[in-house]
Amino acid sequence: MKIGASKAKTVLLIVLFPALLAGCGGKHAAYRQAPVEPALVEAPQDDRGMYLGLLRQMQQQGAYYASLAHIDAFRQRFGDSPELRILQANALRETGDRSTAGNIYRGLTKGAQAAPAWHGLGLIAADARDHDGARLALESAVRADPLNIAYLGDLGFALLQAGQFEQARAPLAKAAELAPENIRAISNLALWAMLSGQHATAESMIQRADLPQSARSEIYRLAQTLRQAAAASNANAVNNTTALAVQPPGSSTQRPRPPGSMLDRFNPTTATLQEATP
Q1: 33 located within any domain
Q2: How far is CA 4 from CA 10, 14, 48, 76, in A?
């Protein structure tokens, strides 16, 4: 094929990598997909839109470092944009640079990218065990995009991590009813039911959704871990009330760490769930 120098078709050669381990400070592990062959994409007018789509696909596969390199190339060719900055912040968060990612997100909370920006800030706060910060940011993401299943699920899971089981019900139920075939949404709602003492309801949801054994095991494990974390947190709160007067200045009581981020706990694109490392 001949390619002109000025107005002819532009050819973009984008190499899409197989899924990598999303290191992100040990936050969680990505799953493996079959490698995607290099794709030769011809775009007469919409190279920019095509390239953005390929960047998103790259990140969905876990190739965050590769996406950062292509983001630099995209910026040189097409300039900057809020959509590109969101993709850059997502990649930086996933590769461990949460400080830079947070700065980018905060600059995008008023505009067309407000919802994903708040979502990113919520995930950063959740990783830092900042329960209040995670809740406030994720609530803002849901307000900006109330039908987004991922935002609803992440808000609900953040509330479960904070021990706020009753408050987690609404966002998790919305996610499950909006996407009844979504394994992650159904699993999170079943987890909420177990934590709320509704074991029969949880088992019914698990059976009806025909969840794989790996998902069932993860639900049971998380239910036990989160229940213990909530009980320990409540006990610490009671103990701190009486111990505060006798503690020396500057001392603190270490709070129990709940499980890691809600990301990829119940990934809807794979039946094999990977253990997330806090």
Answers
A1: yes
A2: 8, 20, 18, 21
Q: Does the residue 201 lie in any domain?
A: yes
* Tokens of residue 130, six digits: 């900042």
Dist. CA 161–CA 165, nearest whole Å: 9
- Last residue of a domain, which of 108, 133, 156? 108
Burial class from Cβ neighbours inside 10 Å (0-12, 13-18, 19+) for residue 126 reads: buried
pLDDT of 75 over the 90 cut: yes
Handedness of CA 221, 129, 172, 63 (dihedral sign): negative
**Domain range enclosing 199:** 143-229+260-278
DSSP character string of 185-198: HHHHHHHHHHHTT-
Q: For the chain, how big is the Rg over CA atoms in Å?
A: 21
Q: How many structural domains does the chain have?
A: 2
Distance CA 163, CA 153 (A): 15
Backbone angles phi, psi at 39, to 5 degrees: -115, 130
C-alpha angle 252/236/165, rounded to 5°?
125
Whether 166 and 272 map to the same domain: the answer is yes
- Please tell me which residue, 111 or 235, carries the higher pLDDT value: 111
pLDDT tens-digit profile of 33-53? 444 444 434 443 468 899 999
Structure tokens at 105: 């997100």
* Cβ pair 222, 260 in contact under 8 A: no
What does the angle CA 250 – CA 253 – CA 256 come to, to the nearest 5 degrees?
Answer: 145
